[in-house]
Specification:
The chain is mainly beta. Strands 1, 2, 3, 4, 5, 6, 7 and 8 form an eight-stranded antiparallel sheet that branches. 23% of the residues are buried.
Length: 92
């Protein structure tokens, strides 16, 4: 499942609408930027409600994907807080 979610993150593009679920919450956000290389993927998104930024992340070590996670940028400290493990992801 981790690999499937990580691969989905690599297909995200700016403007996509992402529906992401952690163990305890569901988020709907618009993708604003993506970054991926051989070591991982990061997808920045703005939630449809609220004013915190989200980032969906997955890293790759020795060819294996780690379980993707969801993080929130807290203002005004500009500190990333891990919200949980990414459980589902749907892109429109």
């Amino acid at each position: 499942m981790s690999e499937e979610l990580a691969r989905a993150l690599t297909r995200a593009a700016p403007g996509d609408r992402a529906h992401a679920t952690t163990d305890s919450q569901r988020y709907t956000a618009v993708v604003t930027a993506t970054e991926h290389d051989d070591t991982g993927v990061r997808v920045a998104a703005v939630p449809e409600s609220g004013d915190d930024w989200l980032e969906l992340r997955a890293t790759r070590t020795a060819g294996e994907w780690t379980p993707p996670t969801v993080h929130r940028l807290q203002h005004p400290e500009d500190d990333w807080t891990k919200l949980g493990r990414l459980v589902t992801l749907d892109l429109e």
